[in-house]
Amino acid sequence: MKTPQKRKQFHGKKKNRSTSQSQQPVADKRCVSSGKGPQDTSWEQQASLYDARHGESGDDIHRRVVIPSVIRQLSLKPGQHILDCCCGQGVFARALSAQGVQVTGLDMSPSLIALAEERAGADERFICGDARELKSLCGKNAFDHAAVVLALQDLDPLAPVLSGLAEVLKARGRLVMVLTHPCFRVPRHSDWFRDETGVRYRQVDTYLRPFNLAIRTHPSQKEQSVTSHHFHRPISSYINELGRAGFGLVASEELTLPNRGSTGKQTEEDERSASEIPVFMVLTAKKL
Prior knowledge:
288 residues, 27% helix, 28% strand, globular
């Protein structure tokens, strides 16, 4: 009988862990949600770069994976009014309006809001403002449903965002949130590895501890580079905060990257592992 081969043991710093050239971690800190007040974590300084990457309709992953999932979870009906919270330059708002609903998009970046307004259709309107101040910006019971797509991990503290969403939604309104998967996509603390047999697997060395990671947009500029912030939290933080805000969790999806149709033994293994380990988590809640 063939003796099973053991996976490599990694000690100390993992030198073969890849880091995106356009997003390099700077510091690993505890979350700052208690005692320090809200941070300005808008993407205003990166607006032109962000728009160049995602443009009018989003990248391939937005179009093929993220947007279809959110539209499924919202259970839209024609004529409804939907809030796209942290809308950026309006990629998701445009996809929503194509479903026959009215959309209000809100974002803290004036430049991204200006880009959204330039491309807006008749059923789209946009507001420049802080997602942590929703009630004062939008009014009570203003929307049938809401979505926050790949933005909650840029925001801290979380409580005023979710309590504000509860205020502006009508009774039984749905809130759909998309996160980079908190279990498997932990910046600086997760990556792909391959064992001696060629099996590709995901390694994660931190999960429960919340932290704030500053990420340089242009690593070569070092301290002169503008930064974005990623606030890592375990899934339980989101579920518990939803409950405190008056939401009940009703559904979830875990999304993987689309199959690229490539061939070759190693590529097939890469496709297999990518189809098993989700990149995004979608949480759907209802206002109680």
